[in-house]
Amino acid sequence: MSSTPDTPDARGGDVAGRVDPEVLDELVAMRASIDNIDATLVYLLAERFKATQRVGVLKATHDLPPADPARERRQIERLKRLAEDAQLDPDFAEKFLNFIIDEVIRHHQALSASSAEPAADDAR
Ligand SMILES: C=C(O[C@@H]1C=C(C(=O)O)C=C[C@H]1O)C(=O)O
């Protein structure tokens, strides 16, 4: 496994040799752009999970519930509006955000459960 995108040797992958050189050039250029976008998605998700993990620690420490459905609803409505403005399918944006939020809530539940466990010294 490597983080290196397609090398020039791998130009076009399966379609190399089956299409005109101009088509292959455009395909390779678009794939380079997709590589960059996917890398930024990974970095953005990593930063988002760092922030939500911190929120999870605050919630677990201060006895707050792992999920905040009202906040989720506001955030989903906001992102659906942004998606429409950006010509992205708002239903897809909603599904994608819900997928991420479900994972965040699982983390928060685990943090709450582990902070509720008695420490080894207390288990007497
Ligand atoms: C991050 C939080 O926890 C949960 C996760 C959310 C999210 O990932 O956007 C939103 C609300 C909460 O259900 C929060 O309360 O802000």
Description of the structure:
It is a single chain. This protein is an all-alpha fold and 124 residues long. It has 3 helices and no strands. The longest helix has 41 residues, at 21-61. It starts with 20 loop residues before the first helix and ends in an 8-residue tail after the last helix. Bound molecules: the ligand C=C(O[C@@H]1C=C(C(=O)O)C=C[C@H]1O)C(=O)O. Residues 52, 55, 67-68, 71-72, 75, 101, 104-105, 108 line the site of ligand ISJ. Keywords: Isomerase. Residues 21-112 form the Chorismate mutase domain. It holds the Pfam family CM_2.
Task: Label this structure with key terms.
CM_II_prokaryot; elongated; Chorismate mutase domain-containing protein; CM_bact; mainly alpha; Chorismate_II_sf; binds ligand ISJ; Chorismate Mutase Domain, subunit A
Q: Give me the CATH architecture, please.
A: Up-down Bundle
CATH superfamily: Chorismate mutase
Radius of gyration: 22 Å
**Helix content range:** 55-70%
Bound molecules: ligand ISJ
Shape: elongated
How far from one another are the termini? 48 Å
CATH topology: Chorismate Mutase Domain, subunit A
**Total count of domains:** 1
CATH C-level class: Mainly Alpha
Low-confidence parts: none
Count every helix, treating DSSP H or I runs of 4 or more residues as helices. 3
Mean pLDDT figure: 90
Order of helices and strands: HHH
Give a count of the beta strands, DSSP E runs of length 2 or more. Answer: 0
Instruction: Kindly estimate the percentage of residues that lie in beta strands according to DSSP.
Output: under 5%
Q: Main β-sheet: number of strands, strand sense, barrel status?
A: none
Protein name: Chorismate mutase domain-containing protein
Domain Chorismate mutase: 21-112
Pfam families: CM_2 (PF01817)
Organism: Nesterenkonia halobia
